[in-house]
C-alpha cells in the first residue's frame, strides 16, 4: 500500500475542496508514491509524535491539525514547527493533515461530538454554498438510461438523503454532420432531427472531472452537447457546526455534567444558567465562537465549542448556554474517526493510534 492510497481513502470521505480557504490540509511532508510501513494517527503532529512514529516503524503520520499552517520562511529549528519539519524530512516520515475538510463533512468531527452526547435528528448548522453544480445534456431517448446510470455512478444525482435524482424532458435536437465526422445518426452534410431527452443532474463541484468523463464515455454521440453551471444552493451535507436534539430534555447542571464527562475535560467554562431545560444542542469542534449567532438563530438551548474569549461569552445574551469544553477536548475523538475510515477501507491493515498526549493545556 502506498501513501496515496491512504490519502485517497481519507479524501473520499473528506475532500480537500471542502477545507476553508485559510487552511493547509493535505500532504505536508513526504511523497504519495512511498510505500507505507504503518500509519500513526494523532490530533497534533508534535515532535514527540514524530519520535513515536520512528519508534513504532510508522512512516506516515495522519493528523487533524496541520503542523504547517502559515508559511515557513526559514527551517532552522528555531521553533517546534521547524523542528518537526526537519525531523520528519530527515527520517522520511510523511505527515498528512485533514483539518477543516474533516470538520465540514457530515459524519466528520462535529458528528463525532454529537455521538458522544447521543444527539438525534442532526443536521449541519451552517451549510456551505457554491459547492454544487448542475449538468445539462441531451441524449437520444434509447440511450438516456445508460447515460443517466453512469452519471449516478460518477457521483451525480444526490439531493439530501435522496440519490439518483434527475430531471428529464423530451424534445428534438438538430445537427448537421460536417466533413470527416462519423455521426451516430443522420448523414453528413444533411440536417438531422433527433428525438432526445434533456437530462439534468446536480453534483458536488469537486466531482466534475468524474462526471464529465462518465458522460463522454457513455454518450453515443461523437460530440456530446452539455452545459455545466455553478449553483448558489446551500449543500446540506457540508458546512460548519452541527445541531441536533437530546433524546430527552435535561436540567442545565445535569447537562453540563454530562458534557464534562463525555468530553473528558477538566473544566467546562459556561455562561449564566437560564433556568430552562436543555434539549436542542448546537456544537462545533475547535474554535467555534464564529457560529454563536447561528446557534442562537437555530433555536439551540446550548452551544458546545471551544476557545471563547472573555467578551465573546457576553454575546450569548442569555439566549442559550455556551459551554466551552476546550479545543483538544472537542476534537480528541478525531483519531477514532481516522481509524474508522482506514480500517473500513483496508480490512487487512491496522493503523496505530498515538499514545502521546498532545493537549498543551493542563488543569488543576
UniProtKB/TrEMBL annotation:
Q: What does the entry list as the binding residues for a divalent metal cation 1?
A: 65, 103, 327, 331
**A single GO cellular-component term on record:** cytoplasm
Return one GO MF term.
metal ion binding
Alphabetized InterPro entries for the sequence: DUF34/NIF3, DUF34/NIF3_bac, DUF34/NIF3_sf, N-reg_PII/ATP_PRibTrfase_C
Keywords per UniProt: Metal-binding
The UniProt record gives the binding positions of a divalent metal cation 2 as 64
Quick check: keyword Metal-binding in the entry?
Answer: yes
Signal sequence region: none
Q: Does the keyword Metal-binding apply?
A: yes
Q: A Pfam family for this UniProt protein?
A: DUF34_NIF3
Query: Subunit comment for this entry?
Result: Homohexamer.
What PANTHER family does its record include? GTP CYCLOHYDROLASE 1 TYPE 2 HOMOLOG, NGG1 INTERACTING FACTOR 3
Provide the family line.
Belongs to the GTP cyclohydrolase I type 2/NIF3 family.
What name appears for this protein in its UniProt entry? GTP cyclohydrolase 1 type 2 homolog
